[in-house]
Sequence to fold (315 residues):
Amino acid sequence: MQLQYFLILAAALFCIGIYGLINSRNAVRVLMSVELMLNAVNLNLMAFSNYLDPQEVKGQVFTVFVIAIAAAEAAVGLAIVLAIYRNRDTVDMEQFNLLKW
Amino acid sequence: MNLAEGVQLVSLGLLSFMMLGAALGVVLLTNVVYSAFLLGGTFISAAGIYLLLNADFVATAQVLIYVGAVNVLIIFAIMLVNKRQDFAPLPKAWIRKSATAVVCLGLFSLLTTMVLVTPWNLSAEVASADSSIIEIGKHFFTDFLLPFELASVLLLMALVGAIILARREFLPEESAVAVQQPILTLPERPRELAGVTPGSPDRTIASKPSDRNK
Fold:
């Protein structure tokens, strides 16, 4: 059990999240990819908290904050997706050009 | 964590396999409902890895908040935007996919090299396995008190913002139309759809109750 295993696992999860974030056509799937990336960051924080700072676990405190912010982000993001769906009648990311030109 | 070393290694391997497989399923599957349920699998595997890292409180919070709140919210959003349409294929889609794959693999190799090369100064102390929740509580009410309170204010703001964004417009002057229909619906009307005619054939069942108010 080494620190490097967890860090490489978190890096792989983060890269999968980036791939999904860029290549998804469905707006809900984009939000799911953002959640994957936030989980990768949480995993990094927890690994550092366990291996570098095991006495006062500040990484776990930061992970709890990140979880709270992620819940707020999911609620607001899904509300935005719902509003855009009512306005444009689609969830295709390629047709959301409201702020493009 | 008072498990043997081999048991920990095997559980880490299993949890990593589950986590990466479920994450790849989230990204690559075409049906978005399967993706939402596999996202729950990813969150559960992350909670198991947190247990391996001597963090029982955060593992519990992960299951409660991510699987219980965020994942259920995502599934509700999928039900509310239930539109079964096939997206129009883009002309040069493979260029974007391959370029993204190359960038992601490059980033992964870069991060892996950095992780393996860097000399981490590991702490020799024993992890406080059973008292992590006590330590977290001490941090929350001493040196992280202001961020803790600010997080509650931010959650309240997100609550109000989500309600305002997802609310439909209330138009009470359309009540004469509502008398004619026998079906009980809410006295509200959706906003005008931009660029879509109401009777176009690609409208789905999910948008039918709003059509009755027209």
